[in-house]
Amino acid sequence: MAALNAQIFIGNIIHSKSRDELEVLENGYIIVVGSKILAIGLEPTLNDAKARLSLGNKAPVTTLSKSQLLIPGFVDTHLHAPQYPNCGLGYDKHLMDWLNTYTYPLESKYSDLELSRRVFKALVKKTLDYGTTTACYFGTLFNESCNILVDTVVDQGQRALIGKVNMTKGAPDNYLEIPVKSLENTREFVKYVQSKKSNLVKPIITPRFALSVDLDMMKELSLLAKCENLHLQTHISENKEEVELVQEQYGMHYANVYDEANLLTQKTILAHGIYLVEDELKLIARRGTSIAHCPDSNLCLKSGACNVRQLWDYGISVGLGTDISGGTLPSVVTIMRLCLYSSIHFSFHIKNYQPLNYEEVFYLGTLGGAEALSLQKEIGNFEVNKDFDALIIDLDTETGLDYLLPCTPRELLQKFIYCGDDRNIINVYVAGRLVK
């Protein structure tokens, strides 16, 4: 019976075993049964693995060409679903002006459920086309709209954390809730997601940022997250003006505000973290909280550059976020590239600074993202008993870059990170299911 639900992949396989270890299996194999990886190794041992798993010769086999790689699916740790129509707009402004001029006016339109359906259907398809098998979404203020996002993600087979945004101040009146209603709506949204009984889609508590909700509200949300054992997401230290406003309003550092509200947990992901001071970095590390690095939006909105090596030096887990529409595309491979460029920037100003390399940003976009979302036991690489979230990429396609000379598997990966896009992503699998 297992053979009826099994798949075998043969070819060049690359994944990160850790931040410092990239494993390359030339002529390797992976055996998947249902959603799970049950064996991985080099092709000469394949028959032994098949016999051990009683597969016989009935399981379908996918054999990769020499220009193809099997890699883990990408993890996007931070993106705003309703902002997708605004990609490419408003980058002449800085964060706070951009929010008020472009973002809040757009997000307030999502009481229109037809708009929600149209945008979210397009966005989820596009993220899957770009190889994002796991996405951490900010939704809108409106429950019905967020429910549509949940349904869309479930229908298209993506793995996701989805949050109903909490905002009780700091935005136009037509895009605010009163605190008691915001909490009630959040509880209802959590129940809605849980009612789907999906192994792939989970709710995440989502206070927008410290200027959007007060301390009491944040404490109530953290209590809800604790009681339901939920993830948390918000923003931190993205922009200098924002940091100054938080300090002025609360009389303490940004991270301390969240700590006072019990929002810093091992299941919390904070977007950006550009201007964290040493005490904040130590605090975030102690709490086991992670950072979503979003180099595209950091550059487009002229917010600054996040020093990933510094975060690592303090023991903080880091993933990558496209942060659309602060970022331009829901493409993690593009973010890998911009992460490299942003890191090179620091080498011009910090003596003996070692910029990130392509192997490290590949880790950030796969296993690093899984670790940042506390999902590393389920996804992120090709360990036995993890879910099979995977991409087949091909550098020799009819469109896109020209593949003129043979490359080693490592060269294929490097070329893809620097030059590739969705046209090079041939197949996308989530929990063993082909979704592209």
Automatic annotation (TrEMBL):
<keyword id="KW-0479">Metal-binding</keyword>
<comment type="pathway">
    <text>Purine metabolism; guanine degradation; xanthine from guanine: step 1/1.</text>
</comment>
<keyword id="KW-0378">Hydrolase</keyword>
<dbReference type="InterPro" id="IPR006680">
    <property type="entry name" value="Amidohydro-rel"/>
</dbReference>
<comment type="similarity">
    <text>Belongs to the metallo-dependent hydrolases superfamily. ATZ/TRZ family.</text>
</comment>
<protein>
    <recommendedName>
        <fullName>Guanine deaminase</fullName>
        <ecNumber>3.5.4.3</ecNumber>
    </recommendedName>
</protein>
<dbReference type="InterPro" id="IPR014311">
    <property type="entry name" value="Guanine_deaminase"/>
</dbReference>
<dbReference type="GO" id="GO:0006147">
    <property type="term" value="P:guanine catabolic process"/>
</dbReference>
<dbReference type="Pfam" id="PF01979">
    <property type="entry name" value="Amidohydro_1"/>
</dbReference>
<dbReference type="GO" id="GO:0008270">
    <property type="term" value="F:zinc ion binding"/>
</dbReference>
<feature type="domain" description="Amidohydrolase-related">
    <location>
        <begin position="70"/>
        <end position="435"/>
    </location>
</feature>
<dbReference type="InterPro" id="IPR032466">
    <property type="entry name" value="Metal_Hydrolase"/>
</dbReference>
<dbReference type="GO" id="GO:0008892">
    <property type="term" value="F:guanine deaminase activity"/>
</dbReference>
<dbReference type="GO" id="GO:0005829">
    <property type="term" value="C:cytosol"/>
</dbReference>
<keyword id="KW-0862">Zinc</keyword>
<dbReference type="InterPro" id="IPR051607">
    <property type="entry name" value="Metallo-dep_hydrolases"/>
</dbReference>
<dbReference type="InterPro" id="IPR011059">
    <property type="entry name" value="Metal-dep_hydrolase_composite"/>
</dbReference>
<comment type="function">
    <text>Catalyzes the hydrolytic deamination of guanine, producing xanthine and ammonia.</text>
</comment>
